[in-house]
Specification:
alpha/beta, TIM Barrel, two-stranded antiparallel sheet, 7 helices, binds iron/sulfur cluster
Length: 221
């Protein structure tokens, strides 16, 4: 049977992912991402070849969510906007009547806008990974390359390009004011207090949370 874009892994059902709302999480390929963030948990913990749910298995999962009273389906990854069959997958979820929140790194505003225009998502959890500035100092560039790409050996344009795309995504989210939207940032140990202030400052009119950083393993990266 044809495969859906979602992985066959345990589905967390919690009130924590979207505060106060009973949510179930479906994942696209953990390794399909255009960033390589500092100590990305998904990349470290799921090394085996991904196995996908077929459409019948996905249907069974969604029926189970209904029976359990799930109020929101969260689609996370990897980076779900890179998944070829994401539209098809979201349409399938929508047929079960669930609102959907998409977790994204915000680097593809064009694809995200198409999903919003086609009413396939009802919110975005946007990871704002660094302060979104027009100019960065060499010291900031060095640290932010590590945050975004786990390497300092990259052209500065990679950080500027990230910042430009995520700013466009924020503008987009502002325009559509979708109900299930949150902004969040991992409190990476590479940040200074000024970095954290700049992130907060840039998002001051939105709900934003810092999430604690958990190292993936001793002595890694
Ligand atoms: S954007 Fe998310 S999935 Fe991609 S590397 Fe960063 S933490 Fe990992």
């Amino acid at each position: 049977m044809e495969l859906s874009p979602f992985l066959s892994v345990d589905t967390p059902i919690t009130f924590r992912d979207h505060p106060g709302v009973m949510s179930a999480v479906l994942y696209t390929n953990f390794h399909l991402c255009n960033l390589n963030c500092y100590q990305c948990h998904n990349r470290h913990h799921f090394k085996e070849k991904p196995k996908y749910l077929n459409w019948r298995e996905l249907s069974e999962k969604l029926s189970m969510f209904k029976a359990l009273g799930v109020e929101l389906v969260i689609v996370s990854g990897g980076e779900p906007t890179l998944e070829e069959k994401i539209e098809e997958g979201l349409k399938f979820i929508k047929e079960y009547g669930f609102p959907v929140r998409l977790d994204s790194n915000g680097t593809d505003p064009e694809r995200l806008e198409k999903l919003i225009e086609n009413r396939l998502i009802d919110g975005v959890a946007l990871d704002v990974k660094i302060p979104l500035l027009n100019e960065y100092t060499p010291y900031q560039l060095k640290r932010f390359k590590r945050v975004l790409f786990s390497s300092e050996d990259l052209d500065d344009s990679a950080v500027y390009n990230y910042s430009k795309k995520v700013k466009l995504t924020i503008e987009l989210i502002k325009r559509y004011s979708l109900p299930y939207t949150i902004f969040r940032t991992v409190e990476y140990p590479l940040f200074s207090e000024d970095d954290k202030r700049a992130i907060k400052e840039g998002l001051k009119s939105f709900p934003h949370q810092f999430n604690p950083f958990y190292p993936v393993e001793e002595n890694s990266v």
